[in-house]
Design brief:
- The structure is a homodimer.
- Chain A is α/β, with parallel strands linked by helices.
- Chain A has 12 helices and 12 strands.
- Chain A has a 6-stranded parallel sheet with strand order 2-1-3-4-5-11, sandwiched between helices.
- Chain A starts with a helix and ends in a 10-residue tail after the last strand.
- The relative contact order of chain A is 0.12.
- Chains A and B meet through helix 4, helix 5, strand 2, helix 6 and helix 11 of A and helix 4, helix 5, strand 2, helix 6 and helix 11 of B.
- Chain A binds a DNA duplex through helix 2 and helix 4.
DNA sequence: TTGTACGCGTTATCAA
DNA sequence: TTGATAACGCGTACAA
């Protein structure tokens, strides 16, 4: 068993109160002499206070939870780093939880946050999970919460997002500017708002340009590579699209595979626009034209908002929208009939 | 503030001991009637016991720590999933910590594990970090520890590994069987044992085949894509190698980029073998020949060993070596002079 | 079957 | 400047 404050007190021949004062740097009311002596003994015996016991009193744990839906998506791992860096700067540690897109796992972690008395929670969950049981769990959390990437009107929390409609519009509008009219779209799950919004941007861009919408050009997937590949194969064999807007880069990766299998050259036969700008982009040839999200900064911003809220320095609900940009690379070309 | 056991006791008009018995499923000594009534009230008020207070008594937190060096490397995220799945099956939750290859961050997390009284820790750290301060922190942990992927003779813990020497030998021997003799190698950092061992396999394979070793064919990197790319470019411009053994897939990804830039076709002009078999492999064309590690299973196995140790069912130190295999794909071809 | 009371390791309050 | 002690929320030995 580890040493306790009691042991240290005994060894130093002072009261536990004195030891407590020393290790908590209480400035006043302690002689330099005893302070040094206690400090010495603490170091010697390598005593570290038990955070659990401490937090029973102080009611804070200097810990924040970060719940993500899919640790295998590089988007989220980059997000994690932004959050961690800010948290550490504030001397907080991050309890990282991978919900793995499963409802029960996510709720489990949410409860854990409460039971472990995290000081606050950063939430990035798919909308599929946003059912009654989940919402209930969130409400019972009774601590500051900041949403990331995926907002939910039903939850009255602060959040950090991008304007997905605008981003979708921008992507598709670019394809239109290259004279494409037969533009397919491979979306994420129907229930996910991000997917819905980006799709909305796609529709608006077509509408503005006076290009009729063909519902068969729109296919759904689960935002992962494999299903993106399947969806692309289906779309490309059934319809003569000359361009595809993939609602995230993983899907775009799948499109590349499908195109290769079907003997379609990118960008000569098919233009592709992605979304996120993941690092693995570099593996593609040609490299992917995509909407760049400032992922790391999104994480940073969300963590800052949460920590301010925890420290009681902000109470109002704020919704921050980060800027995105279209990065043009080799996967898009002017349509030649 | 959340409800406490006291509140529930008051509402149900019983003692806290009774409530405690109910929520802990103490079979004996409680009437079905009161049990139901208490259960009802617990559900109604959505009471969850405070884990922190509980663990002060029980001395266990049903939490294990998992420390990884780089959350951006898909190898580790896959590992995480294996660990999580086993832990959850055992009703344990995983405290995931990303050391980000930094000493102070890693040590910080290690201390956190102790202070938060995790029941055990799974450790995957780079050897660079394995200095005095780190070792000290590990020793003071005073809880079960299982090492993953990277062993350290200096630490007397159980661990789950693969035979990196053998794996390296296998990879290079395959290249030799394809008549290659000018085989380059892009390693990880010199101080990392995994890298050292795989390199050792490379050397042994050459030696066995009677092929002289050219030290200039061996270049080091940091196991990441960018440096892999840089190293490959350097190697390929200076020397006429016909094949490259990349000590992990991220490096191999970099080799592909370098080859493309230099106008070398894979596998016609250059054969490439990687290590890990990451999913992003699918983005490459041709697909990568590589050593497959059972990453998910490594995570599972390590978690099982740790949990058994925690539950006191195993005390002996065990070193488990998992099987690897060479997966032949399109990036390797017979050398034609 | 149920309740009382103590202890877990710490911080905070008040008195000395 | 220092110390004794209550309190945090819970589990459990022991008593009723």
């Amino acid at each position: 068993m580890s040493l306790t404050i009691k042991d240290i007190a005994k060894i130093a021949d002072v009261s536990i109160a004195t030891v407590s004062r020393v290790i908590n740097n209480k400035a006043e009311g302690i002689s330099e002499e005893t302070r040094q002596r206690v400090l010495q003994i603490v170091k010697e015996h390598n005593y570290t206070p038990n955070r659990i016991a401490r937090s029973m009193i102080t009611k804070n744990t200097r810990t924040i939870g970060l719940i993500i839906p899919d640790i295998r998506n590089p988007f989220f791992t980059e997000l994690v780093r932004g959050v961690e860096d800010v948290a550490n700067r504030f001397q907080y540690t991050v309890f990282l939880c991978n919900g793995d897109k499963e409802v029960h796992k996510t709720i489990e972690y949410l409860n854990l946050m409460k039971e472990n008395s995290a000081d606050g929670v950063l939430l990035t969950v798919s909308d599929q999970i946003m059912g009654k049981p989940f919402q209930q769990a969130v409400e019972q959390l009774d601590m500051p919460v900041v949403l990331i990437d995926r907002g939910h009107q039903s939850l009255k929390f602060s959040g950090v997002y991008i304007d997905n409609v605008k981003a979708g519009y921008k992507a598709v509008n670019y394809l239109i500017s290259l004279s494409h009219t037969e533009i397919g779209c491979i979306a994420g799950p129907k229930e996910i708002k991000n997917s819905h919004d980006r799709l909305q941007g796609y529709l608006e861009a077509l509408k503005t340009a006076g290009i009729p919408v063909n519902p068969e050009y729109i296919v759904h997937s689960n935002f992962e590579m494999e299903e993106g590949y399947q969806a692309a194969k289906q779309l490309l064999t059934r319809h003569q699209v000359t361009a595809i807007f993939a609602l995230n880069d993983l899907i775009a990766f799948g499109v590349y595979q499908a195109a290769e299998e079907l003997g379609l050259r990118i960008p000569d036969d098919l233009s592709v626009v992605g979304f996120d700008d993941l690092e693995y982009n570099r593996l593609l040839s040609p490299k992917l034209t995509t909407i760049r999200q400032p992922i790391y900064e999104i994480g940073e911003t969300a963590a800052e908002i949460l920590l301010k809220q925890i420290q009681g320095r902000r109470r109002a609900r704020v919704e921050t929208y980060m800027e995105i940009e279209l990065v043009v690379r080799g996967s898009t070309a002017r349509f030649q009939k």
